[in-house]
Design brief:
It is built from 18 helices and seven strands. The chain is α/β, with parallel strands linked by helices. The protein has two domains: 2-173, Endonuclease, Chain A (2-Layer Sandwich); 189-393, no CATH class. It has a seven-stranded mixed beta sheet with strand order 1-7-6-5-2-3-4, sandwiched between helices. Strand 5 (87-92) and strand 6 form a beta hairpin. The radius of gyration is 27 Å and the shape is elongated. Mean pLDDT is 90; it is low at 178-184.
């Protein structure tokens, strides 16, 4: 028996046994085509006598399923009682020889690269080998009996659900990035003060605005909310009202340049001055009340990007922050550096990345998920709590 104390040792052992064995029987909770040993498994797929894979929590990659969809000996556990969670790798050869590796690693990229994993390797040489082998085979058979082959229709349905689930699973890992773009975060969310801050702490940090007045800021956002709630569409507002909400108009009563001045956004200003129907239609996709979803955001972006040349994150998020200041913050040149540093993301946040990189972080934070406070001023700020991030990160010239 051998204790394997690292992913490298485990991978080396599995590689050697894959080359050596005549047939293999495995059961693992999750599998991915990105696993380092995937090419070798495909090369030796004729050796697969029994391969049972779980798909609980949608952690198994659909590309892995597709690679073995037509293999008669590969099955998937669809609806287990509880979580299907074994990691059992059995290798068999002629003459009753066998090896088994079991422990913590699934057949995934993370298990053999970044995770902390351990396993035990034992074989026909060990004590009570015959009884142990029989028990392993019986266990593997029981797993296989609960599994099924998948069809192309099953795969298509699973892939659709898997893609939606990734949007929820990535934030749990602390990455908040699409799988193809992700890089390992250097901090856990628990190490980022902005994530763990409770409402009282956050409230104090934005109430102590040294650059502008809280009442002045609230007056701007509350005026915008009133205008947008009393007009069905953005293009029904007066020229001055549209320019104010867009961030380049101003009045003696209200400083509309707070929360992101757009005075230098030429194409955007031109579209607002021309009362662009596309911008109005885009804003219609964001509900005034209730939950704002990624689907709402994507529909908004799809229309907004057709409205004028060079649509940017700053102009798009300015309008979002004024329609739903509880979900969105205007990300512009005055707050970008400090906000992105706090969130540990590149300052080059593109409009299509804004939801994953910014909104998902905001809506996962403790302060954002705090219940509505009782005191009047706190309530008013709480209703605009995402937009008020600008107070924390604003850097004047």
């Amino acid at each position: 028996m051998q204790f394997l104390a690292s992913p490298r040792e485990i991978e080396s052992t599995l590689t050697r046994l894959l080359h050596k064995c005549e047939q293999l029987r495995w059961a693992v909770a999750w599998a991915s085509h990105a696993a380092p040993l995937f090419p070798l498994l495909k090369r030796y797929e004729r050796k697969i006598q029994q391969l049972t894979i779980g798909i609980h929590f949608y952690q198994t990659h659909p590309d892995f399923i597709e690679a073995f969809l037509n293999h008669e000996s590969v099955r998937f556990v669809m609806h287990p009682d509880g979580v299907f969670h074994p990691k059992l790798y059995l290798f068999e050869s002629e003459g009753g020889q066998w090896d088994c590796v079991t422990g913590s690693p699934n057949f995934t990229h993370g298990a053999f690269t970044g995770n902390v994993e351990v396993a035990v390797h034992f074989s026909h040489f060990d004590v009570e080998a015959s009884a142990t082998h029989e028990k392993i085979e019986s266990t593997l058979d029981s797993y296989s009996s609960k599994a099924k082959k998948l069809t192309n229709a099953d795969l298509d349905a699973y892939r659709s659900i898997w893609m939606r689930q990734q949007r929820r699973l990535n934030p749990l890992s602390g990455s908040y990035e699409p799988p193809k773009k992700s890089k390992k975060p250097t901090k856990s969310p628990l190490d980022v003060p902005l994530f763990v801050a409770r409402w009282p702490e956050y409230y104090q940090s934005v109430k102590e605005d040294t650059k502008h007045t809280i009442e002045g800021r609230l007056a701007v956002l509350e005026k915008a909310s009133g205008l947008l709630s009393t007009h069905e569409h953005f293009n029904e507002l007066s020229d001055g009202e549209r320019k104010g909400i867009a961030g380049f108009g101003n009045t003696e009563e209200l400083d509309w340049l707070w929360f992101g001045s757009m005075k230098g956004a030429g194409y955007f200003k031109q579209a607002i001055n021309q009362n662009s129907k596309e911008i109005s239609d885009a804003l219609d996709e964001i509900p005034l009340t209730g939950e704002v979803t990624r689907t709402h955001f994507e529909r908004y972006v799809g229309i907004f990007q057709t409205a004028f040349r060079n649509p940017a994150t700053a102009t798009a998020s300015r309008l979002l922050a004024f329609k739903r200041p509880d979900y969105f913050v205007c990300l512009d040149s005055k707050n970008r550096r400090k906000l992105c540093k706090e969130f540990e993301i590149s300052q080059n946040v593109e409009l299509n990345d804004y939801w994953e990189r910014v909104v998902e972080r905001i809506t996962d934070s403790n302060w954002w998920n705090s219940p509505k406070p009782a005191k009047s001023l706190e309530q008013r700020i709480w209703k605009c709590r995402a937009a008020f991030l600008d107070v924390r990160f604003y850097e004047p010239d």
